[in-house]
Glutaconyl-CoA decarboxylase subunit delta
Amino acid sequence: MSQPVTTNPLIIMLINMTVVFLVLIALGLVINLIHMIDPTRPKEKKQEEAAPAAVAAAEPAPAVEPAADEKGISPEIVAVIAAAIASYGYGVEQIRAIRPIERDGWKNSGRMRLSHRRS
């Protein structure tokens, strides 16, 4: 039998870590190559269609604001809510109404108590 090349644990550790990181880099390159030649990737045409939807979402929705003002919600709050909904990918035209919730403490307390019993 042959003798080991080295018995120094630090050199063995460095060799092993180098091999592991080289394998990880090779796997990363293979993954990137697969992403480049992926036949199931959506076509570029779909991305072009999404761009006009984003422009439409940035337009203000005058139909929402007057209805919200009647309920007592300020236009700034309506703008913030519309921006938050638009950030999720929905269009401003999909907002039908913005209404404040009723704040009935006793009713909500009963609902919370029932929900805790069921779980």
